[in-house]
Amino acid sequence: MQTNILEYLEKTVVRVPDKVAYADDKTAIPFGDVYHNSRSIGSFLHARGIYREPVIVFMKKTPMAVVAFFGVVYGRDFYVPLDDEMPKYRLELIMKNLNARAVICDDKTKKIMEQLEFQGDIFLYQDMIEYQEDENALRKIREAALDIDPVYVVFTSGSTGVPKGVVACHRSVLDYVENLSQVLHFNQDTIFANQSPFYFDACLKELYPTMMFGATTYIVPKSLFMFPVRLVEFLNKYQVNTICWVVSALTMISSFGTFDTVKPEYLHTIAFGSEVFPIRQYHIWKEAVPKAQFFNLYGPTEATGMSCYFKVDREFAPDDVMPVGRPFKNTEILLLDEEGRQAKECGEILIRGTAVTFGYYNNKEKTDEAFIQNPLNPYYTDIVYRTGDIGKYNERGELVFVSRKDYQIKHMGHRIELGEIEVHANMIEEVKMSACIYDRENSKIVLFYIGDTTAADIMGRLKDKLPRYMLPNRIESIDRMPFTANGKINRMALKEMIKENE
């Protein structure tokens, strides 16, 4: 039985040592170098007594950062990916929470780290990979390792403004990689294009299956997501056949007429998640790559990536909502009402199984709030994760994401799902993208949109689709939609825009 994610690498390097594993537009690293360089890093950490503790990887988003991740794991430590795009305040909050003794940097990020309040040792990646592999030490480390050892800590946003570090172990990651790979049919010929920042768990979909199968991952330069035509040309240049991206990255391509100029020539697998894919935009993608298979994925960071999948196997009308389908093998979905009983209709989605992570690093209070005893099982310890998402089952028995709990508002005495307003706005042909938020201070629903139409026209069309109490109180046209670092619509930024315009 496999118990360590590095076993993937150790089997693959024997088969294809010279094949490119991870690359960007400047650097390509073959599996042989991934293997030896990561073992050197593990040996380096062991020699300095850094063992079973967090090691920060603060590097530019390059193939070398991936090697650093695996090197930390070779030392039986767990990596914490950070990025120089993070605000200084957030970086220091995370470092204070970790109290880590070591950080791995490159030449550029080392200068930034030296300006932060970090009390540990700063190690240069280039120095670490030149360290002599200690075969004996690495063997003893592996013999002592367990599948419940942490692999990584990734930090999500916290409602109090303090980031929360999610801790995932080998068993959870192995379970996820195996299930995702089986559903999406990854193999040694898979060529990924990575979109997600490394400090989010979304990158697991590319990094670990690449190591498992001997596939290849190309890291897409962030700047290309501002230029859709060049982005698709990048996919074609490297013959990318598989993408697992957030919805906003896909709609950014389809909503601006990119396919009139260039289409993806090699894509056969397109997976998406994190937000609801507007059916109209999905149809544009389907027309552009008619032979591709599409998968809708759903799942939180706290359950090791994605927990549910739906292989798109039928046509959807413009006003339909695509389901998230069924849970991966060895995962169970509970749908509970506010009293903790099985919901008859809509309910909160709770996740049960190996994929559920260990909670939040050095934050027992928040862990206890979200990782709770299964309300349906009073007999023994059975931890489930409360997602804060509302779901329901359709007539086919497929799970459908309805909204976030915090997208559900009470307005004019009615309970309203803001996501429903967005769905209908996105159905309007001239609307390229929209986002709906609630201005609690003024008790107003505000709809932001990008498109070649007027607010009055949108309001007129929404009146035909929505009851009066659900109609936006304000509709604002914007030139560019703000996004978070992992590609989701930045609703906090939209709320700030409301304050600025008052």
List its salient traits.
alpha/beta; 16 helices; 502 residues
> Number of helical runs?
16
- Stretches where pLDDT is under 50 for at least 5 consecutive residues are none
* Helix share bin: 25-40%
SS-based structural class?
A: alpha/beta
Secondary structure: number of strands? 25
Radius of gyration: 23 Å
For the sheet with most strands, the description reads: 5 strands, mixed
**Principal-axis shape:** globular
How far from one another are the termini?
61 Å
Q: What's the average pLDDT?
A: 92
Oligomer type = single chain
Arrangement of strands in the largest sheet: 11-12-13-14-15
What is the percentage of strand-forming residues?
25-35%
Describe the structure.
The protein has about 500 residues and is of the alpha/beta class. Helix content is about 30%, strand content about 25%. It starts with 5 loop residues before the first helix and ends with a helix. The strands form 7 sheets. It has a 5-stranded mixed β-sheet with strand order 11-12-13-14-15. Strands 16, 17, 18, 19 and 20 form a 5-stranded antiparallel β-sheet that branches. It is built from 16 helices and 25 strands.
